[in-house]
Amino acid sequence: MLMAHPAVLTGLVDRYWALAVLDAAAEDDSPVRRELEDAERALCVVTGTADVHAALFSARHRLPGARVLDDSALGTVE
Length: 78
What we know:
Blueprint: H1 6-25, H2 31-47, H3 52-62
């Protein structure tokens, strides 16, 4: 599978979060909502996922600084 360059992933993730904040304050069917949906689709395409949450998770683990043995998706054992 092709992998997106880390700079592309960082830019898409930053764009997604910025638009998500703006969308929270916007009305339905706003231009911000359409841009947010575009950012979601782009994230899904570059990460090979079908869901924005999975795309964000995947992008997080592909970005520089992600730990090789990062188990943050696993529950804690007590």
